[in-house]
Description:
By secondary structure, the protein is α/β, with parallel strands linked by helices. Helices cover 36% and strands 17% of the residues. The protein has one domain: P-loop containing nucleotide triphosphate hydrolases (Rossmann fold, 3-Layer(aba) Sandwich).
Amino acid sequence: MASLIRDELLDVLVDEIDALPGDPFVRVAVDGVDGSGKSVLADELGALLRARGRSVVRASVDGFHNPRAVRYARGRTSPEGFYRDSYDLGALVRELLAPLGEGGSGLYRSTVFDLTTDVPAVALLEEAAPGTLLILDGIFLHRQELAPVWTWSVWLEVDRSVALARCVTRDGAGSSDPAAAANRRYVDGQELYRADALPQERATHVIENTDLAAPRLLR
Length: 219
């Protein structure tokens, strides 16, 4: 169960999102490093908005990965490859963001690729009614190509060792040491992203989410 502090912040965020005008859709991005709590927050927002009677599409950028050969074309340890090549941005825009964008048809697909099996996994075409909220979680969502898309967005700020420890718990493997060689691709790739895209400046709000029970709205 969420803490009172977290509940209070969620109420503030949900009130704000619920009041956003659709065109005819609303696009919400929940961005942050791996382990920052993106999917948890996005799920909470989606559930609370549905409880208010809103139509919500919950999706993750992880449904739009590139094939392994593309992701590792610059080398398996390349930070730039992690940032530049992880996702099929064309498919993300074509199948999800444009259909749920200004003047969009509402006909969307929530996934196109299975990361685990490294094969296409194209979801069935679905139709969103006008007024639907898209809540997308994932890394690199404020990059140059995507930043103009969002009606509203949040960047989650988290202590790096805490975020990595959450990843270790989630995945059952890895190291929580930001300096570990195995983390170089991911830690340095995120630093490239932060320097290139300035997500903490582009986001509507910045939330300090190191303590999940007591997140703080920084901006």
